[in-house]
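Wait, mind explaining this?

_____
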Amino acid sequence: MNSLQLQSFQASSISSATDLPGLFRLQRARRVSSAGLRIPRVSSCLASETKKKADPSSSGKPVSKETKEVMETEGSVFVRTYARAPLVLKSGRGCKLYDVDGREYLDMTAGIAVNSLGHGDPDWVKAVVEQANTLTHVSNVFYSVPQVTLGKCLVECSFADRVFFSNSGTEANEAAIKFARKFQRYLHADEKHPATEFIAFTNSFHGRTMGALALTSKEQYRLPFEPVMPGVTFIEYGNIEEFKKTIKSGKTAAVFVEPIQGEGGIYSATKDFLQTLRTGCDDAGALLVFDEIQCGLGRTGHLWAHEAFGVTPDIMTLAKPLAGGLPIGAVLTTERVAAAISSGDHGSTFAGAPLVCHAALAVLDKIREPSFLAGVTKKGLYLKELLIQKLGDSQHVKEVRGLGLIVGIELDVQASPLVDACRDAGLLVLTAGKGNVIRLVPPLIISEKELEQAAEVLRECLPVLDANIPN
């Protein structure tokens, strides 16, 4: 039997007030090659696997007539950008989803870390219906109460002095790119060529629009659309010395980093690393941008992921869970950054609409409660303990890592067969990294009993990985 070692964050990783065991590492004497594995037909991650058309035969369960009809219609009318799982979802309640045939699934995906309050939260539904019956959209030509109220709340519970709303995470990062360049031009108005370049990191994912795409490390996403925005340098995530050599005064406008990388494989920064970024940016006159689109808003057990490290950014981008499933993004900035932005420098027709902002207030009111966040921390620790207990003896499990309810299980083979088997068994999970990481980002309201159920299904389905090892 393989031995299991519990590795906690080093003392420098997070503040002493929150010295949580963030990483559980499995040391293995041998590694099984992934060469020759079956190419997965269905991707459970928007950013980690090559896209192929979904095929009902990739599932071990028979596909009903209604499911097949929906899939065939989708295939005939949509641009083929998504490799969807062969599953047609119809309704949801709490942490459970139901397909068109009435089959129940435990949702450990939360719409890719979006549905933090689960499905059909009564207070969220009430807020949406109430606002839909009052005022849905007016554009940013006018003021609206929900937008101003949400902005005020975000400022009150964060480092920020100012807020800009967008419609998605990639839009939030595009705004942050523009704000960083405008800040440098504003600060150095007399210089002919102010700083315009950016630093990003390996395994990063910041979005799919042209600017955010330029900050995303995987070449397979950038190459088909080149030339993307020039001036981005990628360095190894966590490499302090490489960062010190790379950042340059008068050249680097901003540094973009995820305190915990989601799509990249659930990798956490350390306090020393983020503090080095903060000091380096201050010395070089660059801005530090934290992308908390996936790891922010309570997912780590802190309202903001960076709070665990005691390092504050100049700009923070948000999106996924903020409006509980409705499209929203946000850029939070200091007054110093906001002073560089003038009327007309950026904008959006739909961003900050009354309906979406009123829904977001219902989400934020719940998530920011200390008792709610403490519950996330507790459940996150319990989930990792369960995974270690139930999966720790598997030769395929290399590491379980994460903070709060953003957890990754790194495998020594591709994860798709396990994802498919879990789905057939009524459990929905995602992949991350290079397709070899199971990503668990459930609704933050998930119960311990449901976590136990998820861990047990994963344990029962693990043997499917043995069938994918070449002889």
